[in-house]
Amino acid sequence: MTIRVAFVGAGQMARNHLRALRHATVPATVVGIHDPVRPHADEFAALAGAPAFASLRNLLDQARPDVVHVCTPPASHVDAACAALDAGAHVYVEKPFAPTLVEATRLLDLAHARGRLVCAGHQMLHDPAFRALGARAGDLGDLVQVDSHFAFRPPAAWMARAGDRAHTQQLLDILPHPLYQLVAILEQFGTPGAAVQLEWAHGSPTDMQAILRAGDLIGRLSVTLRGRPIASTVTAVGTRGSLSCDLVRTIVVGSANPGTAALEKVLNPLIEGTQLITRTARSVARRLYGGVNYPGLAELIDAFYTSIAQGLASPTPDRHLLRVSALFETLAAHIQETAPAASGTTGSPQAVTVAGTAAAAAARAPAATTLGSAPSSPLVAVTGARGFLGAQIAGALARVRGVGRGANPDDPHVAEWVIADLSRGISADAFVGADVVVHAAAETAGDFEAHQRNTIDATRHLLGAMDKAGASRLILVSSLSVIRPPRTAWERQDERTPRAGEPDRLGAYTWGKTVQEELVEREAPSYGIAVRIVRPGALFDRNDPCLPGLMGRHLFGRWYLGLGRPTLPIAVCDVARCASVIAWCATHFDEAPPLVNLFDPEVKTRGAFVEMLRAGCWRGRIVWVPISTMAVAIVAARSVQSLLVGRWPSRFAAWSILKPRRYDGRLAAQVLASCR
After folding, report:
1. What's the pTM?
2. Phi/psi zone of residue 633: left (φ > 0), alpha (ψ -120 to 50 degrees), beta?
């Protein structure tokens, strides 16, 4: 039997599912994709080797899948799953399974009526370490308590500056994982026949603490966006010992003995320390060799497909799903009660539109004056307005329209958000009425393909949309890295120094920014667009100081790895000062220079930069390593990694990237003075 698989939703989680399918023991083939954003669907369809369908109904009617994976945003999980069940397909629903007990019951009742199976995305229950904990917990005697702790750092940089609404949404998104893990252990080891009950809960937009009980067994839930370090652990404590499952490393640690004998008191910490070191090392080696994945996902999908093929029950029982849904609904209410802004009862009024919608132009007129700015203030459209630099730029301007893949409704400086993915194209509506466009969105990580898509293609789409909208002023945020490497140790580079001739050798980021600059200089004049280019040096935040990447890396605790020596030059710029310069260029466009290499000319050396940080709140300690040594190590590591996966190492000029540069800061000083 070959299972016909369809995907509803074509985001990153769907891609993880697609990779997991390759490990299924039951043969499966992808027969269709649907995503309401057609470019997303087309891209994922090409990756899966299957057709994309314009609607969910067309997908179900024409592809006739046996299984539908629902990987859409949470609000549409239940409706998409019910449509698939009605069409006769089994469904795999990503977490959260359902926002309320009523909807979970509706979905499961429909599955029973149609004779189909439902599986929820509770993949951590099939993580090898979690299963090992469940298998060994019986050796701990009578379990007394179970702790499920989840400390998460949101991946998006803008979340560090987000408000209650964004934090609440993020917390609700991650809450199901530690919750269903705790419920599963309570179900397995709680007092037989006892219900899993919520005894106490306290929630906020960033934290959730709760106590659950299954008879005599107590479960403690701790979920936080603020707590550090990052962790996902489940610890079972019994009358004869304890075991801890670390789901970040996929390991189990613990000696599982009472620890009351004298020798146990001495040896247990040594045993557990040895386990932590050796098992973590093996886990890291597995991740490096096999790549970052979602432990337990492939195992859960395989178990689900096996159940379908053999007519067995779902690997996520209905009773478990209903319990988790009921508890999730109650805990979500506790969180939302403490964050009134999350429900829209407080906060600044803002318009959030999708570029290209019919109502976009109408929505913008009132939104542009929401902040009470002077009518003479120019309307500035800022791409990447949620980002590290983009948010600061928005804060330095009077009238801002934010353009990006998502909105930050808690940002009081952005009057209106336009949701669009520049890499896939954007409607001219996004820039209608804008006096100036600040293009601050760009790829900062990823490979050459990612930079081609999110830096170069995005800029090409932006220029075309500006032309159609009649927007004729552009400020491009570039990077000092585009300048060719210095030919001598004493060369002083300035705005006349040409760009790098072979930027691909300097890494994907420098390549993308270099080609982006070339594209703008070549094509903007043909659209009648005037351009100002700002090339910031290494950005840092005085309120959250850290070493820039070209200067060093955080190692452990207070310790940092510094490249070079304290007397070597470094070009840095405080992100707030950089934003003020860009805002000044937007409001004084005609006075702004066509190109400026922007950095703080008063901070000349790495040592001076460190002293400036220490004058504030930074207390780091630095171990300085010669740049030549680090360059050799980087090239060697890249070569080994490439050879391990069967690829020939690509050319990479590590020394040219890391070597110190000296810049002429006269123009930068003039522009900074003008901003003051």
Report:
1. 0.81
2. alpha
